[in-house]
């Protein structure tokens, strides 16, 4: 699982920089800037989870769960914004809000992981 988070962190980082470049050079691409930000904000978190999420017990499992929720949430949010820009249609109804809610939930799960890891 750790290797998976590290790989996805790299993908999110590369896509985030790419979307930022498109957003800065294309008129009306503000949604891509938001998508880029979400990917770039969460790439280091996923990298950290990949590097340090090998802890055993409930804390490690909870940390990995939080990482998965962050990953899916950021992918949904950014994917929906990019799809709207490039294809003019949503990924699916409420994809961006669902992704945003998942990112909030993922961070909350990471808080729980921190409490469990401390014990």
Automatic annotation (TrEMBL):
It comes from Flaviflagellibacter deserti. This is DUF423 domain-containing protein. Residues 1-23 form the signal peptide. Keywords: Membrane, Signal, Transmembrane, Transmembrane helix. The lineage of its organism: Bacteria, Pseudomonadati, Pseudomonadota, Alphaproteobacteria, Hyphomicrobiales. Pfam families: DUF423 (PF04241). It comes from the Bacteria. The chain crosses the membrane at residues 30-53, 65-86, 98-117.
